[in-house]
Design a protein that fits this description.
Layout: E1 17-18, E2 31-32, E3 46-51, H1 55-63, H2 67-87, E4 93-98, H3 113-135, E5 140-142, H4 160-165, H5 167-173, E6 180-187, E7 190-200, E8 203-210, H6 216-228, E9 233-240, H7 259-268, E10 274-280, E11 284-293, E12 298-306, E13 311-313, H8 314-317, H9 319-322, E14 330-332, E15 338-344, E16 349-356, E17 361-362, E18 380-383, E19 400-401, E20 430-438, E21 444-453, H10 455-458
Parallel strand pairs: 3-4, 4-5, 8-9, 9-10, 10-12
Antiparallel strand pairs: 1-19, 2-18, 3-15, 6-7, 7-8, 11-12, 13-14, 15-16, 16-17, 16-18, 20-21
């Protein structure tokens, strides 16, 4: 409730007119982030780490000729998990997600013995890296990509994937998890699809992971989990979901076929608690902010962040001497980049930052040899629809308007700037106005309130238009 004592000049026919404004975060759904650093931890409540498609790193850490060369590839993967462990407390990491293609060569049956040994070596290496997170008690989950499960053909408890990333591993790991628990596999012994629960920022979350080659049974299982926890904010991890964007800012990514279209229509849209989808597989970046989704209507953010094809020079990697590469040889080390997703619960905002510990650099744009993006795709602020967030209303300022009258009206060509001179203002007084713009068809396209104080007490102009900057000023409201 607002209460105040006002003088007669603000009373219009026994009524005081008060303008209340609010923000709809989905009305302006993207803002450029800081390209040179993470968000201040004091500005957000918790974070999630997302990385994916580490396949070339795992492969190189096993198959390169010398220990020195293998160590370079290994260091790119190690850099991510070590950074997470070292920064988990400061950066408020609540969960770490790997969305598949952990390794490179488990692609198609049958595997001859040399290739089987290569695949086992890659699984062992990647398992050791993910084990760094386990050992530090950081809640984490992975899904199988097409390079991990032979394109969706090698499934079930006996798969190589489950030998390294099976249910027993996570049932043991979650003994050290705080504010989180491993929910379980979709079927006994088969962790290619699983779910996790965690609490962060005063909110509860359910994470459902679906591996590559989604079937109807798996879709039904995922729905059953999201429906079992309707009061938890839902996150979907899957390998293949959206295509890389064709726009410089990474926006408006098309759904990938077949998994993406199936999952959107049959899992994301029907479940109002699903607010975030993380994926890999497709080489590039894609960002979608979809409000509303489904019959009930809920906002969903979809993020693709697969840097595996991005290249780094051999000289930068120190491989000109130990590996015999030419300085300008380009090697696929883009998977050394991960994303830190930082959540501000009060504002329902997601701050996305992209970083490579190997390169000590923010933003992967320059390493994309196709030159598709402009840098804003890797560092941005997005709205998120947190279903269990408690909405509050508070007043930090108030403006009371005397009876209003039109200041002026003007018609200008589309794309031009309209301006009106406001004459007869009293020096040292505070005024407010509302600008309403109409399209040629008569539809309202904008309505914007503003307040300013006239010139002689603040040295500010009393006009608005293309040459007159506006200086909003809201006086604090005191009861």
């Amino acid at each position: 409730m607002l209460s105040a004592t006002v003088t007669a000049e603000y009373v219009d026919r026994n009524r005081v007119n008060v303008l209340v404004t609010g923000e709809d975060p989905f009305a302006d759904d993207i803002v450029d982030g800081d390209p040179d650093g993470f968000a201040d931890p004091d500005s957000y409540d918790f974070s999630i780490v997302h990385f994916t498609d580490t396949q070339y790193l795992s492969e190189g850490a096993v198959e390169q000729e010398t220990p020195e060369e293998r160590a370079v590839w290994a260091s790119a993967y190690q850099g991510i998990v070590d950074w997470v462990v070292e920064n988990a407390e400061e950066r408020k990491v609540a969960y770490a997600a790997h969305t598949g293609d952990i390794i490179e060569n488990n692609t198609r049956p049958p595997l001859d013995e040399p290739m089987r040994q290569q695949v086992i070596g890659e699984f062992e290496f990647s398992s050791e890296q993910q084990g760094v997170l386990d050992g530090a008690g950081i809640p984490n989950g992975v899904v199988a990509g097409n390079h991990d499960n032979q394109g969706g053909r090698e499934t079930g408890p006996e798969s190589l994937y489950n030998q390294y990333y099976g249910p027993d591993r996570y049932a043991a790991a979650d003994d050290q998890w705080e504010q989180a628990e491993y929910g379980g596999p979709w079927r006994e012994g088969d962790n290619q699809n699983h779910y996790d629960l965690f609490t962060a920022g005063g909110l509860d979350f359910v994470v459902v992971g679906l591996s590559y080659g989604v079937t109807k049974e798996e879709v039904d299982w995922a729905n059953s989990v999201f429906q079992r926890f309707p009061d938890r904010n839902g996150i979907l991890l899957t390998h293949d979901y959206v295509m890389p964007s064709t726009l410089p800012d990474g926006r408006d990514a098309a759904l990938a076929a077949p998994d993406g279209a199936v999952l959107y229509n049959r899992v994301v849209a029907p479940n109002p608690n699903v607010f975030l989808v993380l994926a890999g597989h497709r080489h590039g970046v894609g960002t979608n902010v979809r409000p509303p989704v489904g019959e009930i209507g809920h906002g969903v953010v979809e993020l693709l962040a697969d840097y595996q094809f991005y290249t780094v020079s051999a000289d930068r990697l120190g491989l000109t001497e130990i590996g015999g590469y030419q300085p300008d040889d380009q090697l696929q080390f883009g998977a050394s980049f991960f994303r830190l997703l930082q959540f501000d619960v009060e504002r329902s905002e997601l701050i996305v930052d992209t970083y490579s510990p190997l390169l000590a650099e923010f933003g992967a744009t320059e390493y994309d040899q196709d030159g598709r993006y402009n840098g804003t795709e890797d560092n941005m602020v997005l709205p998120v629809d947190l279903q269990t967030r408690t909405t509050t209303f508070q007043t930090d300022a108030i403006a009371l308007y005397t009876p209003s009258e039109p200041i002026g009206e003007v018609t200008v060509p589309s794309g031009s700037t309209a301006s009106v001179q406001w004459a007869g203002l009293t020096p040292g007084s505070t005024y407010a106005w509302i600008v309403t713009a109409h399209s040629p068809g008569g539809g309202v396209t904008a309505s914007q309130p503003a307040v300013f104080t006239t010139a002689d007490t603040r040295g500010r102009p009393g006009t608005w238009g293309p040459d007159a900057p506006l200086y909003p000023y809201f006086a604090p409201f005191e009861e």
